[in-house]
């Protein structure tokens, strides 16, 4: 960008034409010489004679009139500047500065030196000079111009940050220049190069200069505002038809429409550019981009012809290489993989040094070979691509396609390595999603479900957290689907449900939504969310899914869900409907399953005849199904339970004959022995057991044979509730798995029969023989209980202590600790009783023994005479266990304790609280006792006052009330307050209380009235 003459030149020219006034002859001579120089300048401003005249004027008068001399020198430099003779202008300006440093033209001349250096491309020297200028002439009017040129110089040196710094520092000191158009222009350009595109566009949007339109268009393009960018480039073309930016602007207008995906308009603009600028260096690129607009507009055949035109026309090898490559892309888009390969191979052979095109051609060639099933060729060319172009933008795609080649060759381990490499080494893209799916498929095809669940789940969690809304939603949905399948196949139904639900919640537009729903239904079923399972299954059944097997599985799932909910009646109906609807299915597996499960439901409902028919139908009609053996076995079991022993044996033998290699064959042979045993045919049972041992010597059921005999003896003793027989069993079969049970049952029976000594011996034997069994813990408990029943309290205490020490967290620990404390209480060891009661409150505060423990500890403190401790605990008891019946009279009891200890002040306070909160009877007794206390302490006035409160309380016949009132009447008699005494006796008289109180009051009233008639005379007012 060349700098033009500044405003100073205009001012100077005005000065040129102004007359010079002088009062003497020298002045007239100077004026004459100046006028001659000006006339020469006007006639031929850039003539050598004019320049010489100006120089002569300056030389002649430089000592006598330095102002006019400097002006002539400056005008001379301006002539060179205007003629773009920047070196000559620089030298001339320098003379002004050097020879006339104090002249008014010196600052302008030095600034102009900087402009000359800039226009000569000497940007570093220009910056250095202008920096000195700004220091030397800090108040010059050209200060802003100097900053402007400095910033431009930095721009030309590509030192954008320094340019920005200069301009920013200047504006911080001189903010009023911020609105200057020139400052905005340079600021906008700086912002563009510093990638502050929005700021650049904002600064440039109101400047009507070609550079402003040009850089604004580029900034808007970078900001993705393509339509606005195209408008800026368009305005440049309309308003500045000779601008140096015109050609680039017209090309970039087409580019803006292209980037804005407005391909028809972009195509028209590229075409217009080609016609307007046929010789431009950009024309081959415009031709290539024109073809690309057709390609992006999905006009692949037209695009292919346009690419052919590019290859036939001008342009460098790069343009032609890309045209050839994109021609192959057109063929590939038209599903012509062979035709595409021709173009890609041509790029590979003809343009080996155009690396971008070569890399893309190799990648796409590998793609085509994959589509054509030529996996070895695909692997060869893709290996070359991934090894040669390690930093290519599509390197991840290369590894993905290479992995697919391995996958299609069933080289799953190599494929997984490729896919894992993509996930670990490359930034996220749709290829990441595809690689993850293919990794899942590779593991799935090898049935490596644990590896699939572990690795794919980890990657999916990371991708889903970082990229919640991927473009490849359908791909991610399938990854979740196979993850769910892997979890399901390994029995992790919760994680499986989460995986399938992710598809429904986040990727519901996927093409596998119904399959995910069906699998989610089965997950819900396994997780016992039966209603949810049915809802999902019905959605699948009612959907447009064409897969009949999936729908059938959902139908039977509904029946299974009712079965699992124990809604057996509905389950039977659903199984019946299913079996009927699918009775003619070629694959009768699910029908046999429905009949089998129907039989199980009927068996549970004790409809054994119906269950038998279901299993027989399943076994007979579907003899090759997976349920055939079990259906036959279950039918035999029904006959066994019905005591149809021979028929049961026949059906068990069918299992042995038809399904000899199944585990049910063994079970059937053992069951036959059990049938003989239960039918009382011991000899046949023994023979059958022996036959079993011969046929299955290594069977894991051998022990069952022995246990069967042992079980019979144990049950016999158990039914008779005979502890001696239980002990005999233990002696005979000490290694039996029922040995411990026999000892425990014997001991428990002894305990129930009050044979505590024998119970202790037997429990101790169990503890000795089976110390690690949970029953041994219970035995320890019973031993202590036996000692307590025998009133061997010290032994009981020792046993209880041992239990608490050894089993502090056992469920019986709280009960045992309570028994220990209570036993200590019984033997009057109150401190120890308190210790263990308080331990219960500390360690088992939520147990059922906490309330009694707290209460009993207070009783123990009372027994020890520690009444304050007892009272404190009673108060805590009332707060914590207020609903306990024992809390109801505690306030009165506390008051009584104070009373009995003659702690009258505390007793009065306690009784007053009883009066305020207690029952009616408690209130009366509290008032009576309070009166008694006042009497004892000879506070008779308070005693009378307290007894008077008894008048209005209920029930009126309460004995404490009557006693108090009798005492009150007596107090009034002592004071000879006969009227008050009679008043109280009247209250007693109508109380309906004890007869002796009522009779006494009734008799006392007339006695007093007769003895003291004066007290009862009615005073008649005197008449005035």
Description of the structure:
By secondary structure, the protein is mostly helical. Among the domains are: 1-179, Tetratricopeptide repeat domain (Serine Threonine Protein Phosphatase 5, Tetratricopeptide repeat); 413-511, Serine Threonine Protein Phosphatase 5, Tetratricopeptide repeat, CATH 1.25.40; 578-700, Alpha Horseshoe (Serine Threonine Protein Phosphatase 5, Tetratricopeptide repeat); 791-887, Tetratricopeptide repeat domain (Serine Threonine Protein Phosphatase 5, Tetratricopeptide repeat, Alpha Horseshoe); 890-949, Serine Threonine Protein Phosphatase 5, Tetratricopeptide repeat, CATH 1.25.40; 952-1024. It is built from 54 helices and no strands. Helix 44 (813-826) runs antiparallel to helix 45 (830-843). The longest helix is centred in the first third of the chain and has 19 residues, at 25-43. The protein is flat and about 165 Å long. The termini are far apart. Mean pLDDT is 87; it is low at 2-23.
């Amino acid at each position: 960008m060349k700098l033009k003459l500044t405003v100073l030149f205009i001012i100077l020219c005005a000065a040129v034409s102004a007359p010079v006034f002088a009062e003497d002859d020298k002045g007239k001579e100077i004026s004459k010489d100046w006028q001659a120089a000006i006339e020469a300048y006007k006639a031929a401003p850039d003539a050598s004679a004019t320049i010489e005249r100006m120089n002569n004027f300056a030389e002649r008068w430089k000592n006598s009139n330095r102002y006019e001399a400097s002006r002539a020198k400056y005008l001379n430099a301006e002539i060179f500047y205007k003629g773009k003779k920047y070196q000559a202008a620089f030298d001339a300006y320098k003379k002004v500065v050097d020879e006339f440093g104090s002249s008014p033209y010196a600052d302008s001349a030095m600034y102009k030196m900087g402009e000359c250096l800039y226009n000569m491309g000497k940007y570093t020297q220009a910056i250095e000079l202008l920096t000195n200028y700004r220091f030397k002439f800090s108040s010059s009017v050209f200060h802003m111009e100097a900053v402007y040129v400095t910033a431009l110089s930095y721009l030309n040196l590509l030192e954008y940050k320094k340019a920005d710094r200069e301009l920013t520092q200047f504006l911080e000191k001189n903010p009023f220049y911020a609105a200057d158009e020139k400052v905005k222009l340079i600021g906008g350009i700086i912002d563009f190069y510093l990638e502050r595109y929005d700021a650049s566009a904002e600064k440039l949007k109101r400047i009507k200069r070609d550079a402003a339109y040009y850089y604004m268009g580029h900034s808007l393009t970078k900001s993705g505002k393509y339509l606005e960018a195209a408008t800026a480039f368009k305005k440049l073309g309309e308003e500045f038809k000779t601008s140096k930016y015109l050609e680039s602007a017209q090309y970039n207008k087409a580019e803006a429409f292209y980037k804005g995906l407005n391909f028809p308009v972009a195509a028209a603009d590229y075409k217009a550019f080609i016609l307007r600028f046929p010789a431009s260096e950009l024309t081959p690129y415009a031709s290539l981009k024109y073809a690309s607009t057709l390609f992006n507009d999905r006009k692949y055949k037209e695009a292919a012809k346009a690419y052919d035109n590019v290859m036939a026309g001008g342009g460098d090898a790069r343009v032609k290489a890309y045209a050839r490559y994109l021609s192959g892309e057109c063929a590939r888009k038209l599903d012509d993989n062979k035709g595409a390969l021709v173009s890609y191979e041509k790029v590979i052979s003809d343009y080996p040094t155009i690396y971008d095109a070569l890399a893309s051609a190799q990648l796409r060639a590998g793609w085509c070979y994959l589509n054509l099933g030529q996996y070895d060729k695909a692997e060869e060319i893709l290996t070359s691509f991934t090894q040669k172009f390690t930093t290519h933008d599509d390197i991840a795609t290369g590894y993905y396609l290479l992995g697919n080649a391995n996958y299609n060759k069933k080289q799953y381990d190599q494929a997984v390595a490729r896919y894992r490499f993509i996930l670990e080494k490359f930034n996220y893209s749709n290829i990441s999603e595809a690689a993850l799916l293919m990794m899942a498929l590779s593991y799935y095809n090898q049935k490596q479900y644990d590896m699939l669940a572990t690795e794919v789940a980890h990657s999916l969690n990371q991708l889903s957290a970082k990229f919640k809304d991927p473009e490849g939603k359908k791909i991610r949905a399938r990854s979740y689907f196979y993850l769910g399948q892997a979890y399901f196949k390994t029995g992790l139904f919760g994680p499986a449900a989460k995986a399938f639900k992710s598809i429904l919640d986040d990727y519901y537009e996927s093409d596998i939504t119904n399959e995910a729903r069906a699998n989610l239904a089965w997950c819900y079923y396994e997780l016992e969310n039966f209603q949810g399972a049915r809802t999902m299954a019905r959605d699948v059944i009612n959907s447009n899914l064409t897969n009949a097997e999936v729908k059938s599985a959902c139908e039977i799932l509904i029946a299974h869900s009712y079965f699992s909910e124990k809604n057996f009646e509905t389950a039977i109906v659903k199984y019946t409907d299913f079996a009927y609807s699918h009775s003619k299915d070629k694959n009768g597996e699910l029908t046999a399953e429905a009949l089998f499960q129907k039989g199980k439901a009927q068996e549970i409902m004790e409809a054994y005849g119906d269950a038998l028919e279901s299993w027989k139908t399943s076994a007979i009609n579907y003899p090759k199904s997976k349920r055939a053996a079990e259906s036959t076995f279950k039918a035999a079991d029904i006959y066994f339970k019905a005591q149809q022993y021979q028929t049961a044996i026949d059906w068990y033998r069918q299992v042995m004959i038809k399904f000899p290699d199944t585990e049910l064959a063994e079970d059937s042979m053992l069951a036959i022995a059990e049938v003989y045993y239960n039918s009382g045919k011991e000899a046949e049972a023994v023979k059958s057991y022996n036959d079993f041992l011969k046929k299955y010597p290594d069977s894991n059921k051998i022990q069952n044979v022995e246990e069967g005999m042992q079980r019979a003896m144990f049950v016999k003793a158990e039914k008779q509730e005979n502890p001696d027989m239980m002990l005999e069993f233990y002696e005979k079969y000490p290694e039996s798995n029922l040995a411990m049970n026999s000892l425990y049952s014997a001991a428990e029976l002894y305990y129930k029969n009050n044979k505590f000594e024998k119970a202790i011996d037997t429990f101790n034997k169990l503890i000795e023989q089976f110390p690690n069994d949970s029953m041994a813990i219970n035995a320890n408990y019973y031993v202590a209980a036996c000692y307590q029943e025998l009133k061997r309290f010290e032994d009981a205490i020792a046993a209880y202590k041992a239990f608490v020490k050894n089993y502090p967290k056992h469920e019986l620990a709280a009960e045992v600790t309570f028994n220990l404390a209570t036993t200590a209480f019984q033997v009057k060891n109150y401190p120890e009783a308190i210790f263990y009661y308080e331990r219960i409150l500390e360690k088992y505060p939520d147990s059922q023994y906490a309330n009694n423990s707290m209460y009993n500890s207070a009783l123990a403190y009372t027994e020890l005479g520690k009444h304050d401790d007892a009272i404190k605990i009673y108060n805590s008891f009332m707060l914590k266990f207020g609903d306990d019946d024992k809390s109801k009279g505690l306030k009165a009891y506390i008051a009584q304790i104070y009373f009995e200890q003659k702690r009258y002040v505390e007793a009065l306070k306690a009784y007053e609280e009883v009066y305020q909160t207690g029952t009616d009877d408690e209130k009366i007794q509290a008032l009576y006792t309070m009166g008694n206390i006042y009497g004892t302490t000879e506070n008779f006035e308070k005693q009378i006052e307290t007894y008077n409160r008894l008048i209005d309380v209920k029930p009126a016949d309460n004995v404490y009330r009557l006693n108090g009132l009798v005492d009150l009447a007596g107090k009034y008699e002592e004071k000879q307050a006969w009227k008050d005494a009679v008043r109280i006796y009247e209250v007693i008289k109508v109380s309906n209380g004890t007869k002796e109180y009522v009779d006494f009051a009734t008799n006392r009233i007339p006695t007093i009235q007769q003895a003291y008639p004066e007290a009862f005379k009615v005073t008649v007012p005197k008449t005035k």
